[in-house]
Design goal:
The chain has 389 residues and is of the alpha/beta class. Among the domains are: 85 residues, no CATH class; 181 residues, Nucleotidyltransferase, domain 5, CATH 3.30.420. 39% of the residues lie in helices and 12% in strands. The protein contains 16 helices and 8 strands. Strands 1, 4, 5, 6, 7 and 8 form a 6-stranded mixed β-sheet that branches. Strands 2-3 form a two-stranded antiparallel sheet. About 2% of the residues have low confidence.
Length: 389
């Protein structure tokens, strides 16, 4: 009887012949790179990626700033880098915790998501890192960033997501980009550096046991910074003070300020933010014990604000304020503002400042607040559904 040979089963060796070699299942690695690509950047970003929501919010605010951008540039001359692209790049630096502008430009050169967000094509040349330096005095200023902050806040207000009656305020220390070695007597601030030590190293300075204060000393590298500490038993560092005001419905930041780190900075900044609301409806303002000072409580009431601060031992707040249920709610919700400061320090990298001088630090602090608000919007379902309450 004739026997017909059956086809060999995969994995069975017949003599010296390996079936896997005859029918390869393993893909080949071709080292030759394709010259052309037929997939656009838009198609490479997943449709459900959260960065799409961020870009939609940010671009809507930038579209309202065309006239302001036009007023910053001359009508004739060589075309510059669009300011919208620079601001989008800075927002990526905040959201992705990129340490420096040089690293940001490097990331733009190879990251397709970054190129898509900024508005660069695959073949477009990325600008140099010093572009941010040259445009800082014109573009990255308090006026531009404050306008952007207000426009993004208006998007939440248009959907009625902001509380009009209840707010919280808090301050935090921002460590300055300055060393304690450079914190010298004010008479020696303008003295030239001593080059007698080893080349390429900082001078050895022994300041232990010396009495140093902001009245007698100043930083050589960052004169605006002040020696401050978070509390008793904590080490003192050269710092600035950042201040936030949030509304109590969704914890959205409605105002931000940066001041010198003084003992009264928190109350002074809160009063400035209250004065910006002059003429609006009465509000309540929650805060910690540092705000519970008789003079400040009276100033709050003069600005149509009921203070809901945590009470000190001899507090000026009495049962007329603390007996209400709203006071307890304010004390509970005001702690959410610490999440804002924590996010801005850890994600936006504002715990240790990268810039010097109050004029440069404030725009970056407000930009960090913008980043937090956008992330908060992306997590609020009512923002996309259109809340009407």
């Amino acid at each position: 009887m004739d026997c017909q040979m059956k086809p060999p089963i995969m994995g069975v060796r017949m003599g010296v012949v390996d079936i896997h070699r005859e029918l390869p299942m393993r893909g080949s690695s071709d080292s030759q790179i394709s010259i052309f690509s037929y997939v656009s950047l838009e198609d490479r970003i997943p449709k459900n990626h959260p960065i799409r929501k961020v870009k939609k919010i940010f671009d809507e605010a930038l579209a309202e700033m065309d006239e302001l951008f036009d007023s910053l540039y001359a009508s004739r001359g060589r075309a510059s880098i669009p300011p919208e692209q620079l601001l989008r790049a800075l927002m990526l630096q905040v959201l992705y915790s990129i340490r420096s502008e040089r690293q940001l430009v490097e990331r733009l050169s190879y990251d397709m998501l970054f190129r898509w967000f900024v508005g660069l094509n695959l073949d477009d040349e990325v600008w140099h890192a010093t572009t941010f330096t040259h445009n800082r005095d014109r573009l990255i200023t308090s006026e531009i960033v404050d306008e952007l902050f207000g426009l993004i806040k208006q998007q939440a207000a248009a959907k009625k997501l902001l509380s009009k009656d209840h707010f919280s305020v808090d301050g935090t220390l921002l460590e300055a980009s300055a060393s304690l070695k450079g914190f010298v007597p004010k008479d020696a601030v303008n003295e030239p550096p001593d080059d007698s030590g080893p080349a390429g190293r900082n001078d050895d300075v022994n300041f232990h046991g010396q009495k140093r204060s902001n009245e007698t000393h100043a930083s050589k590298s960052d004169p605006d910074s002040r020696l401050a500490r978070k509390g008793k038993g904590k080490e003192a560092k050269l710092s600035y003070c950042g201040h936030l005001m949030t509304e109590n419905r969704h914890g959205i930041i409605v105002d931000a300020e940066v001041t010198l780190a003084t003992g009264t900075a928190e109350r002074e900044a809160a009063l400035v933010m209250l004065e910006r609301r002059a003429g609006q409806s009465p509000i309540t303002l929650g805060g910690d014990k540092n705000y519970d000072v008789r003079g400040f409580n009276e100033a709050c009431r003069e600005n149509n604000c009921t203070p809901h601060f945590a009470c000190r031992a001899n507090s000026s707040l009495d049962g007329r304020t603390t007996r209400h249920e709203g006071y307890e709610i304010s004390q509970r919700i005001r702690k959410r503002i610490e999440e804002c400061n924590g996010w801005m320090k850890d994600i936006a990298l504002l715990r240790k400042l990268r810039y010097r001088g109050l004029e440069r630090i404030k725009p970056m602090y407000v930009l960090g607040a913008i980043g937090y608000n956008i992330v908060r919007f992306c997590n609020i379902e009512d923002f996309w559904l259109g809340a009407t309450a």
